[in-house]
């Protein structure tokens, strides 16, 4: 697996961020940029963002809104579908136990720093969440958000009125518990050694009636393919970052290296190990984006040129017609 000093998270993790900021009357654009994220990077849910920047955006929003429950409220709005194909697979699982196992295995494809585990004392089961983002692990905002999503997962099988038998938080008791009680019930425990939801162990066998075995098999195979790709293909991570940064208008070799918290020299060497250099990869991603823009939109070449960071129109046609490939 690729070693990245910072974690990576899909841009989908900030879905609903703008709406919640607007509802609480703060400028989401300013907060995102202060965290190192360009708003355009959120337009594609599969773009990759630095985990520290994602958590930074949550921290800044919590401060600006003076809401300690910002992460919790955002997670409640997002629900399980925020996990993309991981969430779709969980929805097609027959039992809650199967769904939790699927999320535990594949959640790192949504956020490389996330760890989901389950343990049981016989009577009760505990869905435990850990965040390993370098420099800011186990931050309350991301962990609260994750517990809200975990509750949404359990409710798929236990019913929408379900509340945990206990919700455990590492952080101190917030001043206002209204949202915590609304989303996670009255059995709240703060200053604990882990973030977890406690529920009756028998719920692990709870089943839902509306599942499709063919869809479940499809999403499972899709997740296996993604897992294999991101574990073994360094270029896939870099290409995704380049795509994200191109769409934000701030792409350079140094910027990619800085986000991955490696030196430009290390980035060059790792790409060379795959028979590439940064310029080739950049040209390939630009070519793919140019074809997509021209096929799916009515943007003129001048607009495509600006979107791809290409100064002359000939650059766009060259990318489209030559289609520089990644081997």
Question: Helix- and strand-based class?
Answer: alpha+beta
Beginning-to-end CA distance, first to last residue: 20 Å
- Strand order in the largest sheet: 3-4-7-5-6
β-strand amount: 5-15%
The total beta strand count reads 7
| Gyration radius, in Å | 21 Å
Q: Main beta sheet: strand number and arrangement?
A: 5 strands, mixed
- Low-pLDDT stretches are 299-327
Mean pLDDT: 86
The general outline is globular
> If helices are DSSP runs of H or I spanning 4 or more residues, what is the number of helices?
15
In which range does the helix fraction lie? Answer: 40-55%
Note the run of SSEs as H and E: EHHEHHHHEEHEHEEHHHHHHH
Search tags:
327 residues; globular; five-stranded mixed sheet
Give a short summary of the structure:
With 327 residues, the chain is of the alpha+beta class.
């Amino acid at each position: 697996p690729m070693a990245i000093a910072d974690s990576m998270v899909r841009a989908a993790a900030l879905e609903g961020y703008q709406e919640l900021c607007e509802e609480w009357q703060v400028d989401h654009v300013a907060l995102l940029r202060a965290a190192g994220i360009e708003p355009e990077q959120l337009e594609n849910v599969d773009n990759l963002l630095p985990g520290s920047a994602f958590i930074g955006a949550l921290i800044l929003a919590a401060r600006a809104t003076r809401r300690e429950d910002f992460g919790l409220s955002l997670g409640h709005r997002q629900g399980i579908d925020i996990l993309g194909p991981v969430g779709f697979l969980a929805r097609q699982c027959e039992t809650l136990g199967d769904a939790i196992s699927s999320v535990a295995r594949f959640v790192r494809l949504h956020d490389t720093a996330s760890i989901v585990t389950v343990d049981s004392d016989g009577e009760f089961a505990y869905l435990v969440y850990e965040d390993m983002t370098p420099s800011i692990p186990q931050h309350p905002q991301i962990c609260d958000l994750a517990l809200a999503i975990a509750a949404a997962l359990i409710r798929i099988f236990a019913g929408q009125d379900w509340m945990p038998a206990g919700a455990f938080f590492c952080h101190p008791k917030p001043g206002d518990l209204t949202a915590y009680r609304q989303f996670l019930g009255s059995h709240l425990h703060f200053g604990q050694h882990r973030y977890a939801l406690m529920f009756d162990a028998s719920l692990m066998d709870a089943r839902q009636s509306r599942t499709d075995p063919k869809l479940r098999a499809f999403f499972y195979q899709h997740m296996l393919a993604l897992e294999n790709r991101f574990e073994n293909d360094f270029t896939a991570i870099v290409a995704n970052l380049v795509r994200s940064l191109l769409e934000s208008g701030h792409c350079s070799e140094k910027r990619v290296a800085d986000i991955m918290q490696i030196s430009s020299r290390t980035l060059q060497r790792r790409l060379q190990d795959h028979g590439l250099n940064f310029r080739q990869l950049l040209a390939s991603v630009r070519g793919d984006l140019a074809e997509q823009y021209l096929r799916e939109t009515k943007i003129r070449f001048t607009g495509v040129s600006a979107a791809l960071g290409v100064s002359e129109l000939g650059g766009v046609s060259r990318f489209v017609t030559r289609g520089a490939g990644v081997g």
